[in-house]
Amino acid sequence: MKQRTSKANLKFNNYLFFNLYEVGTKARLLNLYKVKKNSYAGEVIGRIYDLYFGNPINYRKEFRRYYKKEFDNCEQYLVCRFNMSEELARKVCRNKKYYVDLEWKGDQVGDYFSYDDELKNQFWGFVGGLEYED
Questions:
Q1: pLDDT of residue 7
Q2: Stated pTM of the model
Q3: Which of 4, 60, 70, 124 has the fewest CB atoms inside 10 Å of its own CB, making it the most exposed?
């Protein structure tokens, strides 16, 4: 299977920051695994994708819509909102556009996924890798 080479997704505390266009769609991931959408394997892969990348929030739109008057720029917003360092906020502003709060997302399949290292490595390889900043 051909893996994508791109910038890694960033996990900080219970948040996952990523560029949706680098990650790709659920259909692309199913195609890479060569499984059908309505099969059991397709359901599992789809649920894992949704666990990490489902319902993403574009923090730039959130900043412009709600916090532009309060903060001078996006970096200051990220520092205050997510308690990031300034260096990390600059890195996120340069490369990432979306985030997902993983704290409230719970899924039995996603939890079991954490124990299968081979599947986990394949998955993160397809979606651009994972970088921890905790």
A1: 65
A2: 0.79
A3: 70
